[in-house]
Design a protein that fits this description.
By secondary structure, the protein is an alpha/beta fold. The protein has a single domain, classed as Alpha/Beta hydrolase fold, catalytic domain (Rossmann fold), CATH 3.40.50. It contains 8 helices and 8 strands; from the N terminus they run βββαβααβαβααβαβα. The chain has an 8-stranded mixed sheet with strand order 1-2-4-3-5-6-7-8, with helices on both faces. α4 links the parallel β5 and β6. It is globular. The N and C termini lie far apart (36 Å). The C terminus is likely disordered.
Length: 271
């Protein structure tokens, strides 16, 4: 079995840009935006777990080689390419990356195909903050920020920044005001996702932001190293009682709450 067995690969075009989207599962739509360096076997495993929970997964190929295993050189190369890409603005504090416009169009397409109250969106690492940007002009009602790493935290202001525009943040506030929730995941010692970023989310969204912060400091009970970063993929231990499994369970519960149960969200596009 290869990493992407069971996925249907289809093209999706918006504004003249065509990318491959890997799809699997049935039910309300969830857009999974992969991390650096690409759609690794661990990312595909997470997508299958979401599909197995009763959702239709849309996994767009944004960079890297689909199915290629993770390695340090591969990851470093992916970061370097993102730094010079016109689609990723890795140092922008108050604006999102241009590729989020294409991703919003994909979310609208996914909702049109699947229906339901709205769409879930999971961003990871380089794409982590994109789940915020997708709330604007798209029917995203269940945004998940897993180790959101942009902007790269080189300065004090960047450590606290959210990599989204004022209009995008206002759309997220509107979602929260309607009873929605933004879920954020991080390891506490991860230098790419400083505590200041989650503090900004708490300040801006209040009780509408739910943080899952896993202890990865010295002597932590689960033996996470200082390099622990990828909550839902590389570091995921699918065992009862493990904190990464608890994080996964909370993500799936949010999708059930917002996409499978209750009345349609007022901000969702009607089907």
């Amino acid at each position: 079995m290869t990493a992407l067995d069971g996925f249907e690969a289809t093209p999706f075009m918006h504004a003249g840009e065509t990318r491959t989207v890997y799809r699997c599962g049935h039910g309300p739509a969830v857009v999974v935006m992969h991390e650096v360096p690409g759609i690794t076997p661990e990312v595909a495993r997470f997508a299958r777990l979401v599909a197995g929970a009763g959702f239709r997964v849309y996994l767009p190929h944004l960079f890297g080689t689909p199915g290629r295993p993770l390695s340090v050189p591969y990851a470093l190369g992916g970061i370097l390419r993102a730094c010079v890409s016109r689609e990723f603005h890795v140092l922008a504090s108050d604006a999102s990356s241009p590729i989020t416009d294409w991703l919003r169009a994909l979310a609208r397409e996914a909702h049109a195909e699947c229906g339901g109250p709205g769409v879930g969106a999971v961003g990871m690492c380089l794409t982590g903050n994109f789940a915020l940007a997708l709330v604007l002009d798209a029917p995203v009602t269940a945004p998940v920020l897993s180790q959101p790493s942009l902007p790269f935290p080189l300065t004090a202001s960047q450590r606290a920044a959210l990599h989204c525009s004022p209009a995008e943040l206002e759309a997220v506030r509107g979602l929260v005001a309607r009873g929605g929730c933004v879920l954020g995941l991080r390891f506490t010692a991860d230098p790419m996702v400083p505590a200041e970023r989650f503090e900004t989310l708490r300040r801006e969204l209040g009780a509408g932001f739910e943080a899952v912060e896993i202890d990865s400091g010295p002597g932590n009970p689960h033996g996470f190293g200082r390099a622990a970063h990828s909550v839902l993929t590389t570091e995921l231990v699918d065992a009862e009682g493990h904190p990464t499994r608890a994080a996964l369970d909370r993500v799936l519960a949010l999708f059930r709450e917002r996409l499978q149960a209750g009345q349609p969200d007022e901000g969702a596009t009607p089907t």
